[in-house]
């Protein structure tokens, strides 16, 4: 039986978040420059996006560039920005064809103006699409996101728009970049690293985790199916007992 047939489409993660890691090591293993790894990583992005849409996943969030990634060598950052622009141009058609809506989270103002322009254009052209929301985390840092939310809420308290007593989890959630997304159900990280690297700290409070040694450019549909099958074998108890769930 193929892996796809083992997936129960009634129990898909509603929100899948992927830390796409290992492009640099993939290239190094082949004796190539890191850039080659990033270029090949974009192919895995396309395969994953299309496979998720076909399966019926409602929300896919991809960690594409972190606030910390700005500290990489200037040339690598420039290349990643160029790749982002070319991918956005190239993939618009795929998004439209598959009825996928593009969304972006992060400190987008820090992105080069050309990237912002391209991004906004694709977001605008896909805003009516309904099959799946693809969120790109770009110049994204979770601590920064939470800090910004705290500042925005504090400002509202100061201006008597809301009271301290009314601040609850929903209010905080509504001030995050992800305000219109559901909590993350499954986090996948490739490349054998077992860490979160400042990704969606608030939103993963009750997520399941799946780590694989596969490097991102080698990640295929089958690897995605393996992650989902693993997720579906788990019992999510949310603090309750197993008996309460059944
Ligand atoms: C992930 O691959 C892509 C980004 C973080 C932009 P890396 O570039 O981190 O690859 P490794 O971890 O060095 O192998
Ligand atoms: C995390 O990968 C960020 C992205 C995948 C975009 P990194 O490769 O930057 O993570 P660390 O710094 O090694 O944890
Ligand atoms: Mg890495």
From TrEMBL:
Substrate binds at residues 22-26, 34, 38, 66-68, 70, 72, 189, 195-197. The keyword Transferase applies. Keywords: Magnesium, Metal-binding, Transferase. Pfam families: Prenyltransf (PF01255). Its cofactor is Mg(2+). Mg(2+) binds at residues 21, 208. The active site is at residues 21, 69. It is an enzyme of class 2 (transferase). GO terms for molecular function: transferase activity. Gene3D superfamilies: Decaprenyl diphosphate synthase-like. Binds 2 magnesium ions per subunit. Its EC number is 2.5.1.-. Belongs to the UPP synthase family. Catalyzes the condensation of isopentenyl diphosphate (IPP) with allylic pyrophosphates generating different type of terpenoids. This is Isoprenyl transferase. The lineage of its organism: Bacteria, Pseudomonadati, Bacteroidota, Flavobacteriia, Flavobacteriales.
């Amino acid at each position: 039986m193929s892996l796809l047939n083992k997936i129960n489409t009634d129990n898909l993660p509603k929100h899948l978040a992927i830390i796409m890691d290992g492009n640099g090591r993939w290239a190094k293993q082949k004796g190539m420059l890191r850039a080659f790894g990033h270029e090949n990583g974009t192919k895995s992005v396309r395969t994953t996006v299309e496979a998720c849409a076909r399966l019926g996943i409602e929300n896919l969030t991809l960690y594409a560039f972190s606030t910390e990634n700005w500290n990489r060598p200037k040339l690598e950052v420039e290349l990643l920005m160029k790749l982002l622009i070319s991918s956005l141009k190239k993939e618009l058609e795929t998004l439209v064809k598959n009825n996928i809506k593009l969304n972006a989270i992060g400190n987008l103002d820090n992105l080069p103006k050309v990237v912002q322009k391209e991004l906004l254009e694709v977001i605008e052209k896909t805003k009516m699409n309904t099959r799946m929301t693809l969120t790109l985390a770009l110049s994204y840092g979770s601590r920064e996101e939470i800090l910004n939310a705290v500042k925005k809420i504090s400002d509202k308290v100061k201006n008597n728009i809301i009271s301290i007593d009314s601040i609850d989890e929903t209010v905080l959630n509504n001030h995050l970049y992800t305000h219109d997304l559901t909590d993350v159900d499954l986090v996948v990280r490739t490349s054998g690293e077992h860490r979160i690297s400042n990704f969606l700290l608030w939103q993963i409070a009750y997520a399941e985790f799946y780590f694989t040694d596969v490097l991102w450019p080698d990640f295929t549909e089958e690897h995605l199916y393996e992650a989902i099958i693993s997720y579906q074998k788990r019992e999510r108890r949310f603090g309750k007992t197993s008996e309460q769930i059944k």
